[in-house]
Design brief:
260 residues; mainly alpha; Serine Threonine Protein Phosphatase 5, Tetratricopeptide repeat; 8 helices; 87% helix; disordered N terminus; disordered C terminus
């Protein structure tokens, strides 16, 4: 029994000495923190956690030291660890509050609002948390309005670019149409010129053919020649007969010029 008792007493004494070391590290870290020596404070808090892994006060204060060094990712991780492990309402509420501040620094206003709300559920009368919650809501509205304005500006810029592209396409199309029309006009002019030249050639050939026909004596058949000869002879006979009649008539109608 004495051995067991002594062991128990020895174990208790060793545990008390171990607890004093980690608390001493945290107190030294707090002094460095108050003096603004955040890197030195970080070192002491980490030593305290080496003495007692998972020590909530050491984890919480280390989160503060990382926050002051603008290492928000590590700070976020440490406060989240305290929230998950702590059973103390005040300590958990403070961890949510600091987590909200970390999100604020990262411009994550929606996450910040949720953290402040969780803090107020545990400490409903905390004025600092209420103030920060309203501030986060205001910043979220501003962020949304700014994003909306940026989207509108981007849409306007995109519309301008689209209009420029469309105008360029229309201009290119107009130029292509003009080129096509000019080409068609040139082709039509060439066709007209070719037709005009062909007509002239055809006309010249026709004139040459007429000249050739004029130059060449007309060929007639023997029968046509005989008929023409007979017609000429008949015309001569008729002419002679007509002349004889006129002479006879003139002789019959002639008066004497002698005065009886």
């Amino acid at each position: 029994m004495r051995f067991i008792i002594l062991f128990m007493i020895f174990t208790f004494s060793a545990g008390l000495s171990h607890a004093q070391k980690e608390k001493k590290r945290v107190r030294q870290g707090n002094n460095d923190f108050e003096e603004g020596n955040f890197q030195e404070a970080e070192k002491e808090y980490r030593k305290a956690l080496m003495e007692k892994p998972g020590y909530e006060k050491g984890t919480f204060n280390l989160g503060d030291a990382m926050y002051e060094q603008e290492n928000y990712e590590e700070s976020n991780k440490l406060f989240t660890e305290v929230i998950e492990r702590s059973t103390n309402a005040d300590q958990k509420s403070a961890a949510y509050y600091n987590l909200g501040n970390t999100f604020m620094k990262e411009n994550k206003f929606e996450e910040s609002i949720d953290a402040y709300k969780n803090s107020l559920r545990l400490s409903p009368n905390d004025e600092n948390t209420k103030y920060n919650l309203e501030y986060a809501r205001k910043k979220l509205i501003e962020q949304q309005q700014q994003q909306q304005q940026q989207n509108q500006d981007q849409n306007k810029d995109q519309d301008k670019e689209d209009k420029k592209d469309q105008d360029k396409k229309d201009q290119d199309k107009k130029g292509d149409n003009k080129k096509d029309q000019d080409k068609k006009d040139q082709e039509n002019d060439k066709k007209d010129q070719d037709k005009e030249n062909q007509d002239k050639k055809d006309q010249n050939k026709g004139d040459e053919k007429k000249d050739q026909q004029k130059q060449q004596p007309q060929q007639i058949s023997k029968q046509d020649a005989q008929r023409m000869l007979d017609a000429l002879q008949n015309d001569e006979k008729k002419t002679l007969q007509e002349l004889q009649k006129q002479k006879a008539k003139a002789a019959k109608g002639k008066k004497s010029d002698i005065d009886w």
